[in-house]
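User: quick one, fold this
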Amino acid sequence: SIPEMRSPQEGDTSLFLSRQNTIWKGFINMQTVAKFVTKAYPVSGSVDYLSEDLPDTIHIGGRISPKTVWDYVGKLKSSLSKELSLIRFHPATEEEEVAYISLYSYFSSRGRFGVVANNNRHVKDLYLIPLSAKDPVPSKLLPFDGPGKKQACTFGKGKR
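Assistant:
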């Protein structure tokens, strides 16, 4: 038999995530684009309440321009009463990767971020930012206060 081949980066990501605590598991759904099971991992900021506050299914209501998000993040970072938390989504299983990549490609090819439609108590705004394994972390999200981005941070959480 032939051993399964994985790219070094893919292997590094799996190893890194295997050492992280999953803070949430559920569906991400965007009508007519993709629905898949995913897990969320902490990247930066406080994530204590997210396991309770994220719904079973995160519904993506539409697209938003990166400039609008970055302007908002800039205001958020200078606020004393608001907090920026970042999480990373990763497909729950290999079978979920096709739908995950479809959603990533949908936003990436349009140069847009996703806007979540069903936020809860502590989460005022939630955005999905498509980052490939090769993309640098946008400077507006730095510095990290948490486990950070070891390798690929493909899809992140919004206020991200």
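User: anything notable?
Assistant: The first strand starts at residue 24 and ends at 30.
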